[in-house]
Amino acid sequence: MQTIVRLADYRPSDYLIDRVDLDVRLHPTETRVTATLALRPNPAGEPGAPLVLDGDELTLLAIALDGQPTGPGAIAVTPRALTLHQPPQRPFVLEIETQVNPSANTKLMGLYRSNGVYCTQCEADGFRRITYFLDRPDVMAVYTTRIEAERHEAPVLLGNGNPVAAGELGLTRHYAVWHDPHPKPAYLFALVGGRLGRVGSRFTTMEGRSVEVAVYVEPGKEGRADFALDAVARSMAWDERTFGRAYDLDVFNVVAVSDFNMGAMENKGLNIFNDKYVLASPDTATDADYANIEAIIAHEYFHNWSGNRVTCRDWFQLCLKEGLTVFRDQEFSSDERSRPVHRIAEVRTLRARQFPEDAGPLAHPVRPQAYREINNFYTATVYEKGAEIVRMLRTLLGPETFRRGMDRYFAICDGTAATVEDFLAAFAAESGRDLTAFSRWYEQAGTPTVAVSGRHDAAARTYTLTFRQSLPVIATEAAAGAAPRPLVIPVVLGLVAPGGGPVEAVSERVRDGVFVLETAEDTLVFTGVTAPPVPSLFRGFSAPVKVEHALTRDERLTLLAHDGDAFNRWQAAQSLAMEVLVGRARAGAPLGPGAGPEGEALTRALATFLDGEALADPAFAALVLTLPGEQEIAQAIGAEVDPDAIWRARQTLRVQLGRDLGPRLLALRDALAEAPGAPFSPDAASAGRRALRNAALDLVTAADPETGTALAVAQLDSAVTMTDRLAALATVSLVPGEAREAALTRFGEASRHEPLVLDKWFALQAMIPEPGTLDRVRGLMRHPAFSLGNPNRVRSLIASFSLNNPTQFHRPDGAGYDLTAEVVLALDGKNPQVAARLLTAFNTWRMVEDGRRRQAESALRRVAETPGLSPDVSDIAGRSLA
Ligand code: ARG
Ligand code: ZN
Questions:
Q1: Nearest alpha-carbon partner for 215 in 323, 133, 145, 300
Q2: Whose atoms come closest to the Cα of 262: which ligand?
Q3: Average pLDDT value over all residues in the chain
Q4: Atom 2, ligand 1: residue with shortest CA distance
Q5: Which residues, in sequence order, are bridge partners of residue 465?
Q6: What's the distance, CA 210 to chain centroid?
Q7: Per the count of CB atoms within 10 A, which of 28, 409, 494, 516 is most buried?
């Protein structure tokens, strides 16, 4: 059993490391690393304590203390730790030589090879797989890295910081030396060596520093790196404009590799990326890919301040850098694209990923209080809910005070390993507010529900809103038994007149459109309200809560048509649809040609909406036409869920929308057609037009598969962008038959040599909501391009099935669970992080109806009881069953 690490047990390190000199001689199987560590006792630590350096799968070759071999019995060495029993109680130098095998490193943590390229991933605890070290974020050192390699194998050698020297060694070898003047924790260390193509440019910072920016990719793919390179420049400019943050080195490098556990990593001056989030060209990347690349480039770049200059004291503070940096990248995307459209996308992700996590057995606070395996806490809760907390802080304080608070945080904490308390203290000091109650957002798991009711008093001309918040009791260790305490919830709101237009009403409790709910129950009274208004609450999704608000259908229609807040207009359409969907799914209604009078009311409203403004904002219109996803419907139902009934409800409503809006949708599709030969642009406006065209095609096909398939096949043949090709293929993939199989075969053939495109092809097939999909997936696992060794392949084929195909993952016969469990076990020996992530598909197992629940539980138990599990998988399995 692994040990539990607790926030409450934090102690400063007994020793500090001020300087690290690394000498790395790259070799495919026998890489040698000499680390020279300048250590000293930490005044805040325990005097005379032994020095225990972390290690993981390391072979020690040599060790010296202040230039002398260590005496017999002075040290104890295992692959996991190096202990110096009686370290000097003054500054001293340890020289440690280790050997590692990058080619055998399938965990993709530490130093490994991806398509022959040497690269590293050290967050959270990978540096200890390179050398023995105090591998904890509050030990910060200045690094100098010398990398040596065969020139033919690794002509490009990159490290953190600035290049300071390079040269030849005999006929075949060469070296490069990099120096990073900024003290950093070991998790931000990186190096790269390999044959790589490069695109570059210069950026001059607001401080006048000329920075050499470069993106490195597989040779031959340089043309697909320009968009990422441009995104770096836009990120740099945005952070200067928006937060006054400038880059602080002479070089900024981004490297794309094809084997990567996550999206990307913010190593100081040397960001390493999953190539899926770098490579873009119109014929290989969709508009969604372009948006993701831009967002992740920005995210990693923004970490340079929120994460690197100010880092985390310990891993419990992960949200300090991740929540804040997600907030920053979301703001960037909102500024670069359409703010309301981006906000809707953020909320859809939050509801589809974070809400279920918060409602299931893996629920945890944004700042967890205990963990067994930290790599399992890179979650939607830490990242996305963490970002929502920062956004609420801005809403509560107002943008100017918020900005000053950020400045103060960076000024006070620069160069330190900080905590959530340090972060909040900066805002408390700047605003003069007590943020103690607000800080509960970091401590209490679970999604709050806010129930609201409104009452108009004609005689008194008042309108009264009553708010009641409730939090689920989550049995986390730290919260054991304690009742959750009220949260500070910013409610951005307005009143809409029944015929449209704002209502000029006043309440002294509302400042700048914000009402702050701080108690379990509160009442808000507006005066001067002559007619019953329609309240528009939580505008812009001002808090990550579930809202229970019994609006009538007509009130929702009023909001859809007239609300001044775009998010709530979209929300009104979603709520109208959700009522229909939940009603039908709960009743187990059969597939039908339409969803009755409620469905008709929705289609009428959507028709008016489309006629009025679809062409003015196609991206927004596409979102309004998109029904809530199956996972979201399942969450709304909450218990005894039947995924097939949900699919039937959703399909029925799609058929109705497609039928009733068909002629309009086809007309829109024509009106939005791209002029032949028009140049491609990945910008938000062009992407929005493609999104609406394809949403239209999709609904038309639901109602009339024959016409739709013909249109989609034609689009597949003529389209010049991957967005249009993939959308057509997705549409065709939902219609069983010859045309589908032919289209899939052709697409697969055409993209045979493009792994990232094949990933889309794998994913599409894995998401077909039909019983045949299970065998299709098993068949594709034997495809020559598929490999359990590559995380992107596993995610596109297996995780798409397990996490994004609810009817088939939850097959009543349990075969979907079995496949998932089987892959988790097969993968665990190779790559535990990816295996553990896949196992989180079982997060919803307690919500499904009895028969499925029993099947899911037995598959989970089979995993949990397998001997020799990794800590990663055994942690997820254990918590899922607890
Ligand atoms: N810090 C990275 C980010 O930008 C995530 C790295 C997580 N890696 C891991 N192995 N847990 O979000
Ligand atoms: Zn991050």
A1: 300
A2: 1
A3: 97
A4: 265
A5: 454, 524
A6: 32
A7: 409
The secondary element (H helix, E strand) that includes residue 23 is strand 15-25
Identity of the amino acid at 674: E
CA distance 676 to 696: 20
Q: How far apart are CA 349 and CA 544, in angstroms?
A: 12
Decide if pLDDT at 492 tops 90: yes
Give the residue, by CA position, lying nearest to ligand 1 atom 11: 375
In 101-187, the DSSP E strands lie at 110-114, 117-121, 141-150, 156-159, 162-169, 173-184
Tell me the per-residue pLDDT of 866-877, one tens digit each, with 9 for 90 and over. Answer: 999 999 999 999
**C-alpha span between 574 and 400 (Å, rounded):** 33
- The predicted complex's ipTM stands at 0.98
Q: What is the pTM of this model?
A: 0.99
Residue 135 to residues 132, 314, 370, Cα–Cα distance (Å): 8, 11, 18
In 449-482, which positions are buried (b, 16+ CB within 10 angstroms) versus exposed (e)?
ebebebeeeeeeebbbbebbbbbeebebebbeee
Length of the chain in residues, anyone?
Answer: 882
d(CA 51, CA 13) in angstroms, rounded, equals 9
Pocket test for ligand 1, best of 108, 112, 260, 265 (most atoms within 8 A of CB): 265
User: 162 by DSSP, 3-state: which?
Assistant: strand
> Hey, what amino acid is at 855?
Q
Answer whether 387 contacts ligand 1 (Cβ < 6 A).
Answer: no
CA–CA dist 409, 598 (Å, integer): 51
Question: How big is the chain by its Cα radius of gyration, in Å?
Answer: 28
Given a cut of 80, whether residue 497 has pLDDT beyond it is: yes
Q: Give the DSSP H or E segment for 764.
A: helix 755-766
Give residue-wise pLDDT tens across range 802-840.
999 999 999 999 999 999 999 999 999 999 999 999 999
Would you say the CB of residue 373 lies under 6 angstroms from ligand 1? no
Closest CA to 620 of 340, 348, 294, 337: 340
* Nearest ligand to the CA atom of 185: 1
Q: How far apart are the first and last CA of the chain?
A: 15
pLDDT of residue 190: 99
Cα–Cα distance for residue pair 473/788, rounded to 1 Å: 39
3-state SS, 458-481, equals CCCCEEEEEEEEECCCCCCCCCCC
pLDDT at 1: 52
User: From the CA of 785, how far away is ligand 2's center (Å)?
Assistant: 29
pLDDT for 86 beyond 70: yes
Structure tokens at 455: 């009452």
Token pair, residue 231, equals 């995104």
If you measure from the C-alpha of residue 303 to the centroid of ligand 2, how many angstroms do you get, rounded to a whole number?
7
Give the catalytic positions in this structure: 300
* 322 ligand 1 Cβ < 6 A: yes
Whether residue 192 has its Cβ less than 6 Å from ligand 1 = no
Band the pLDDT of 473: cuts 50, 70, 90.
confident
Which of 56, 106, 121, 123 is the pocket-test mutation for ligand 1 (most atoms within 8 Å of CB)? 123
Closest-CA residue to 354 (of 398, 401, 394, 387): 387
Relative to the CA of 307, which ligand 1 atom is closest? 1
Q: Which residues pair with 64 in a beta bridge?
A: 69, 95
